[in-house]
Amino acid sequence: MPDRLIRRWNSLTANVRGSILIIIGTFVGTLMVSCIKVLGQRIPVVEILFMRQVVLLLVIAPMMVRNFPGVFVSRHRKLHFIRVGVSSIAMITGFTAFVHLPLAEATTIGFARTLFTTVLAVLILHETVGLRRWSATALGFIGVIVVVQPGSDSFSLYALAAILSAFLVALLMIFLRTLSQVDKPITIMSYQAVFLTLILATPALYFWVTPTWTELVLVIVAGTLMSVMQWLNIQAYKVGEAAAIAPMDYFRLFFATLIGIWFFSEIPTIWTFVGAGIILLSTADTMHRNSIRKSAAPATPEAH
After folding, report:
1. Rounded Cα–Cα distance for residues 241 and 236 (Å)
2. Per residue in 32-42, pLDDT tens?
3. Residue 70 DSSP one-character state
4. Which of 55, 144, 288, 291 is the most buried (most CB within 10 A)?
């Protein structure tokens, strides 16, 4: 039976296999966020993140030991530390939003990272963006406004936290684009794992709430799911084309809505669906335009 499944899997096209892996990854990621949402009802977010980082650090420790001390050699050490600092804020604000907002709403706002990436690519990387991409970006931000409804009774600071997290995640992607050109993946992962754990340690100990055995198990599960999600994403982009499989990330909203309704009794508002539709359309168009630029890059290097 396993051999038959392997043969059927290998008979699929690379993009289909990559898309399936991405979809599974979005489901695993949503489960991880759900674990943190449950834990966050009693345990501070910084403590949850610290314990999750400890689990992740233990997972990659063998690779770090094998490559030590070269694993921390980098020409952009300062940028690594800046990335770690920004990452700590992005994680705290993002997961705080997931704890206090409905899963579907927090997930929808999180898609704004693609829109922020376009803006930051222009400001920091000096990339050229045409009128169509600017229009799609502006439309996406209108979708974000529809979801968070500033000035209404449903507006909250947690929605602002989700927006801030999306912006910082986009900034991290810009940093990663620079670092990945000169450093090995294990170096990038090691700086993140070690120094992010150290940063989170102090506030985690200050706000410490002793977890129950059940909560400890959930932390371990969340850390394990994070590792599985990263592995699935890496494998997906290894076998499939980015332009073909990236839109599959939208399944994250589908799973967030189902789990939110079934497990947390969260019924999304009509504005969440309307805003989500606007954001998904704008980000899909942005990714499409990005794929066109990348495919044309060798013939027109000046487009960069």
Report:
1. 9
2. 999 999 999 99
3. G
4. 144
